[in-house]
TrEMBL record:
Protein family per UniProt: Belongs to the helicase family. RecG subfamily.
Purpose of the protein: Plays a critical role in recombination and DNA repair. Helps process Holliday junction intermediates to mature products by catalyzing branch migration. Has replication fork regression activity, unwinds stalled or blocked replication forks to make a HJ that can be resolved. Has a DNA unwinding activity characteristic of a DNA helicase with 3'-5' polarity.
Native species: Desulfoscipio gibsoniae DSM 7213
EC number, as in UniProt: 5.6.2.4
This protein's name: ATP-dependent DNA helicase RecG
């Protein structure tokens, strides 16, 4: 072995790999490959089987062939369109054929007569000739190991400028020099029980597999490795939170909570009661609550949140409720204030646009404890806000934010009970593993009397008929939403489309109705006014961009029309639909779209098929893949290199079991056999600290 092999691949720059100079290193940096380790953990996206040579003489045009040939002659031509075409006459055991390269300026001088090379590419048989448009080739020089052809070859994720051939060559060189300096860090027993390939071998096989089956085994090892480290991180995180006792405690449940429940006008559903019990038990514990409350749109999470806050209030402590947007914070504030001020509870809204003076006065009241419940956005816990005795923090719809927030609060020595609420439907099958650091409560049933929302699909041309239907509903005393998408890239255009539609409706189908427009560019006070009027029933139809997405609660609204529904994700569509059907009576959701893609069609189909957010989440994952799902990304999962939490859910589960067992047995990984694992985990934590703060 060379000296190089003694060095640590984690600390060795790619430019120290044979053949990689500073310029190449720069190109690799574009793929975020800086060290030898980065390069070796840059796994193939797929493989091409070039182990069997396929002769051009047996195949049809358009097929991919791989052949070993010898150059007879070659020539280079430039076309008027500045295309360089290099053409070689080649021979193989079966006869003569042609190989063609486009814009490969350096190739001509390599194609000396007599040179032997592997060629793979697309076959074009015409005029009795066999011509291969070369996709990949490898010149055989003496005893060199063939890596580009004549075997199963790796295909890497790449960007322009970094060719497959280059990557393959570099990875191969790096492997030869360094693979033996990798030592297995997974515990022996785990490897045996799970039947996982050992690290150095897996590195070789994942890049240059001897067979397809070995490639799969190698990949399985790395998938497990990723999931296992992820689960170890969660298990440790959880343990760290549970280690510090909180500084506050609560008395027995009393007056205030009972009064609030008595004033609700409905009784809690069984699911709500169960969840409240779980929360109260957490609050009684000496360690901070660390709980995720999952519940579909309209399942009644707000009541649960209020009860949690009241537990703090009745013990002379404070609570904070945070929403993702100002509009939602305002709405939470209004509803909290409406139900709590009669009980003598002081609720305040701390909003971004507040005049300095007003803000200062409010901060003063928070600091002295005069205000018990503070509602706001993320800004609430940042900067200059000082609480007298903050005991409960509730975060609506922002999981990742919640996790960070907890970390930064703990740094300040505050250990509140944390409840994160989400309708972002991480499929139930996954929540345990994805939210491995949190306890989970699920409200799994809607309040009684809700009818499923009737869901229809219409082509855009049918919209006028839809609006006539809307007008009829309004005539019957109901209200409606018309939602147009607003995407950041084309915000201006979209906004104009919404304004145009509003004009059209006011002058057309909805002439007799009170129609209002709501969009994100409006002033806060304007938005507030419109929402107020809609809530109060002074506006019949709200034409809106997606600002109403989450949390808006107007029980009398019975119709949701979504224009260009193909531009929304499934989770969003479901959220929007959840805005109607909150009161009695039949509600309707009309999805209008041009179905330009298969995905769009499948989303609409799923919406018609189900009202269950968790089912839809599962579908969403299937349709789009987990990397794309907003909810999953928000959940704070790292981006995996190879793992796919849906496809690999069995591995995920066993990785979790191993991680939990290990951490409960040896939380610091002190045993000698875990030494390498501990080092690996420390590095993993550092690399993924943007997802989770590790205390
Ligand atoms: P979400 O979980 O989406 O935040 P909300 O808390 O906004 O749902 O509740 C949706 C609606 O259901 C509200 O109008 C609320 O008053 C009502 N609600 C909540 N719990 C019950 C219940 N147990 N029985 C009847 N209605 C309920
Ligand atoms: Mg809500």
């Amino acid at each position: 072995m060379s000296n190089m092999a003694a060095k640590n691949p984690l600390e060795t720059q790619v430019k120290d790999v044979k053949m990689i100079g500073p310029r190449r290193a720069e190109q690799l940096a574009r793929l975020k490959l800086y060290t030898v380790h980065d390069l070796l953990y840059h796994f193939p996206r797929e493989y091409m089987d070039r182990s069997q040579l396929i002769s051009p003489f047996d195949r049809h045009s358009g097929e991919i062939v791989t052949v070993l040939g010898k150059v007879i002659s070659s020539q280079e031509n430039k076309t008027r369109k500045k295309l360089t075409i290099t053409k070689a006459v080649m021979e193989c055991t079966r006869g003569v054929f042609y190989a063609v390269w486009f814009n490969q300026f350096h190739i001509k001088k390599l194609l000396k007569p007599g040179t032997r090379l592997y060629i793979s590419g697309k076959l074009n048989n015409s005029f009795g000739n066999h011509e291969i448009q070369v996709q990949d080739y490898e010149i055989i020089t003496g005893d060199s190991d063939s890596i580009h052809a004549g075997r199963i070859v790796p295909v890497y994720p790449s960007t322009s400028g970094v060719s497959q051939r280059m990557l393959r060559t570099f990875v191969h060189a790096a492997l030869e020099q360094w693979y033996l300096s990798y030592r297995e860090f997974l515990p022996r027993r785990l490897l045996d029980k799970e039947g996982l390939m050992v690290l150095p071998e897996a590195l070789k096989q994942v890049h240059f597999p001897d067979t397809r089956a070995l490639a799969e085994q190698a990949r399985r090892r790395f998938i497990f490795e990723e999931l296992f480290l992820f689960q170890l991180q969660l298990a440790l995180l959880r343990r760290n939170i549970m280690r510090v006792k909180k500084k506050h405690s609560y008395g027995v449940i009393s007056e205030l909570i009972n009064k609030y429940i008595a004033g609700l006008g409905f009784s809690l559903t069984a699911a709500q009661s169960r969840v409240v019990d779980e929360i109260m038990t957490d609050m009684d514990s000496p360690y901070p609550m660390n709980r995720l409350l999952q519940g579909d749109v309209g399942s009644g999470k707000t009541v649960v949140a209020v009860l949690t806050l009241l537990r703090a209030v009745e013990n002379g402590l404070q609570g904070a409720l945070m929403a993702p947007t100002e509009v939602l914070a305002e709405q939470h504030y209004l509803s909290l204030n409406r139900s709590l001020s009669p009980l003598g509870v002081q609720v305040a809204l701390l909003s971004g646009g507040m005049p300095v003076k007003e803000r200062r006065a409010l901060l003063e009241q928070i600091a002295t404890g005069k205000i018990s419940i503070i509602v706001g956005t993320q800004a609430l816990l940042q900067g200059d806000v000082e609480f007298k005795k903050l005991a409960v923090v509730i975060i609506d719809e922002q999981h990742r934010f919640g996790v960070r927030q907890r970390a930064s609060l703990q740094e300040k020595g505050v250990y509140p009970d944390l409840l994160i609420m989400t309708a972002t439907p991480i499929p139930r099958t996954l929540s345990m593993t994805v939210y491995g650091d949190l306890d989970i409560s699920v409200i799994d049933a809607l309040p009684p009397g809700r009818q499923p929302v009737r869901t229809y699909y219409v082509a855009p041309g049918e919209l006028p008929r839809v609006f006539i239907f809307v007008a009829r509903q309004v005539a019957e005393g109901r209200q409606a939403y018309v939602v147009c998408p607003l995407v950041e890239e084309s915000e201006k255009l979209d906004l104009q489309a919404a304004v145009d539609l509003y004009q059209q409706l006011v002058e057309g189908e909805l002439r007799g109705c009170r129609v209002a427009l709501l969009h994100g560019r409006m002033k806060r006070s304007e938005k507030e006014l419109v929402m107020q009027q809609f809530r109060a029933g002074q506006v019949d139809v709200l034409v809106s961009t997606t600002v109403i997405e989450v949390g808006v609660d107007v029980p009398n609204a019975s119709v949701m029309v979504i224009v260009d529904a193909d531009r929304f994700g499934l989770a969003q569509l479901h959220q929007l639909r959840g805005r109607v059907g909150r009161g009695g009576g039949q509600a309707h959701c009309i999805l209008s779209a041009r179905l330009r893609s298969r995905e769009a069609a499948e989303r609409i189909k799923a919406m018609k098929a189900s009202q269950d957010g968790f089912y839809l989440a599962e579908k969403d994952l299937q349709i789009r893949g987990p990397g794309d799902m907003a909810g999953v990304r928000q959940s704070g999962m790292p981006e995996f290199r190879l793992a796919n939490i849906i496809r690999d859910r069995d591995l995920l589960r066993s990785a979790r079991r191993w991680a939990m067992a290990l951490i409960s047995k040896d939380p610091e990984l002190r045993a000698g056999e875990y030494h390498l694992l501990r080092l690996t985990l420390e590095r993993y934590n550092k690399e993924n600290s943007n997802f989770y703060h590790i205390g």
